[in-house]
Specification:
Nucleotidyltransferase, domain 5, about 375 residues, single chain, alpha/beta, about 40% helix
Amino acid sequence: MRVLGLMSGTSADGVDGVLVRLRGAPRRPRWRILASAHVPYPEALRAEIIAVGQGSPRTTAALLALAEAITEVQAACARQVDPARTARLVGCHGQTLWHRPPEATRRGASWQVLQGPLLAELLTTPVVCDFRGADLARGGQGAPLVPLCDGALLPAIDGWRALLNLGGIANLTLLPPRQGPDRRAAIRGWDCGPANTLLDLAVQRFSDGRLGFDADGAWAARGRVDEAALARWLQEPYLQQRPPKSTGRELFGAADLERRLHDLGAADPADALATLTAFTAAIVAADLERGPRPLELLVAGGGCRNATLMGDLRRRCRGMRVRPLAELGIADLDREALAFALLAWWHWRGVAAADPAVTGCRRGGRLGVLIRP
């Protein structure tokens, strides 16, 4: 079956899309990516998404217009990936505006903006969306949802294997080995903390809006890391919290950046960016030290293109082989879109996709809502 997957993440830079052929056993499918594309959000739309995601008030009319605009870009990406409209099903994550993990006194909630019926009509194809809602309703974090997909799409190796996505937020998957006492262990996954959210905001601030990100980490490479600040930051409650856990701009956004810059004092911009870049690498390394130590770390997402960040990861994750996921045939920006194509296919086939070991939900079950044109 040909399935189209669409993903727009916390970094809010645009929509990633893949067209994939899936067949065979659902838990170990045969798969092949047939086409992929990235369609950036227009700058004004990206700015609006980030502003609303940071809590900037809007009228209901403005929120409605935002949902329509986001849906139109999703449809544009789908058309670019699959111009002949060969896909029989579309899995679309939508654009996260707000994520509230569950707490002791209230359930979790998450808002992925998308007009599903409009997308189904624009593409004349069934759409599966709202993947997080069912997991949240069952008491889970609603995120991350990709780890089970990683386990289905990638082969096991002789030891634990880790996958890291460096989008707006850094998140990890741990896959058990194919042999030995841990071979029947559960797949694990969680959100580590900030990746590109703080970095991109800092670059925009230091460049007076002229730059949107630190290309190749070149600016950070000119600075010096404040290791004392890193040591303080790593003691913060979220970073010490054990999985299951999830987060987003609500915690690691503009206000958090201001707090960290204040903590750094009158730091040179290059030094601040070097410290923020090292912060992401240090968070990931600390998390990997707490669990079964993997033999290798496969890295995907936009942050994979940041040479300074990748260098920091290699230095702080000593003893692990750190390499791009692209070496296994899944390009930097394709992994999560591929995952949501698989999640849609699982929904279509009635396969459970929620995992209590990852999100903390009370029980597994199907994820997503199917909308027919």
